[in-house]
């Protein structure tokens, strides 16, 4: 079946502009995660969705970052007034999760964001 | 507190050499899950293995093997007869069980370079 997809694959924007990143999880996966990976760094957790709810937004770096998920499927991560330090690869992952069941995360290819 | 340490930032080996990537974790939970992911130059994280804390059996999959030792809180990954295609960044991750404890803790990764 289809894996996690993300769009765009690459995004170049000017400082101060808003950007929207999209994630299509694997069909039926209830949990969705956003991570940020700066050049040569590990994965920084941003936000987690269970269904359409985001129980924990504590990983979002600032109030310029927001995310939503609709219909328990597609999620968008929005960065307002982008800054150069927002340049990174934004990774999305999904998993079957719920009722105490732990399932493996599967990752999308990421969106490479470059803020000039 | 939970933590995953991958002390080896970068390792270079010559093709056909064996190589072990170290992963040491910290957790106070008695039940937990450990994962290894591979991130090739293309960028997409690929799931390699998942292990729960009650299963200390070592696992072998082709040229890959994993050594899980609770006594030393380690979950090391060995590639036998390495190949150039093994060149990637490898991440170890820890996850607590149960709903509401969804966060995956990733190590900072080990970059493996296999030279022809």
Description:
The complex is a heterodimer of chains A (116) and B (116). Chain A has 116 residues and is mainly beta. In chain A, 0% of the residues lie in helices and 48% in strands. Chain A is built from no helices and 11 strands. In chain A, strands 2, 4, 5, 6, 9, 10 and 11 form a 7-stranded mixed sheet that branches. Chain A has a 4-stranded antiparallel sheet with strand order 1-3-8-7, with no helix packed on it. Chain B is an all-beta fold. Chain B contains no helices and 12 strands. In chain B, strands 2, 5, 6, 10, 11 and 12 form a 6-stranded mixed sheet that branches. In chain B, a hairpin with an 8-residue loop joins strand 10 (88-95) and strand 11 (104-106). The N and C termini of chain B lie far apart (41 Å). In chain B, 30% of the residues are buried. The model of chain B has no long low-confidence stretch (mean pLDDT 91). The chains are: A mainly beta (116), B mainly beta (116). Chains A and B meet through strand 5, strand 9 and strand 10 of A and strand 5 and strand 6 of B.
Beta-strand share of residues of chain A? over 45%
Summarize the largest interface: chains and residue counts. Answer: A-B, 26 and 23 residues
Mean pLDDT of chain A: 90
The main pleated sheet of chain A reads as: 7 strands, mixed
Assign an overall shape of chain B.
Answer: globular
